[in-house]
Amino acid sequence: MPEWHDVAAFEDLTPEKPLVVTIGNTSIGVKVWRDKVFAVVNRCGHAGAPMAYGEIHPTMSSPSPGAPVEVDYDKPEIRCPWHHWGFDLGTGACTAPIRRPRLRIYETRVEDGRVYILA
Ligand code: FES
Asked: Were 37 and a residue from 46, 85, 89, 108 both cysteine, which residue would form a disulfide, CB within 3.0 to 4.6 Å?
């Protein structure tokens, strides 16, 4: 049964400096982006890259070739630091057009300046 874990002070997290925590036997990367906290398993399903060092971006898409690119800041994705596969930070689904393994995403919350992860 997952439990909430107090992992850090929110003020200690910066976009440039990821936090890696271990809960049970699982390494989890904790990232902040646009004042939101995200927690992901710290191992890419492709070749094991440390996802804590992936960059977070808004989702970018184009409905058809040559159409303007649409940027959605409400639907961020994290990009693997080694081979740059993207993963939706809401669902963990890989955003590459072909089927890839999901990334485990953990629920987070900030309360009284502390960051909690449900794991
Ligand atoms: S290790 Fe993540 S895409 Fe290859």
From this structure: 108
**Minimum-distance ligand 1 atom for the alpha carbon of 84:** 3
Confidence of residue 41 (pLDDT cuts 50, 70, 90): very high
What CATH number is given to the structural domain containing 107? 2.102.10.10
State which residues form the domain around 73. 4-118
Q: Is the CB of 103 under 6 A from ligand 1?
A: no
Domain total of the chain: 1
What's the whole-number mean pLDDT along residues 10-14?
94
Nearest-atom number in ligand 1 for the CA of 81 is 2
Cα→Cα distances 116→36, 51, 77, 107, Å: 12, 19, 20, 8
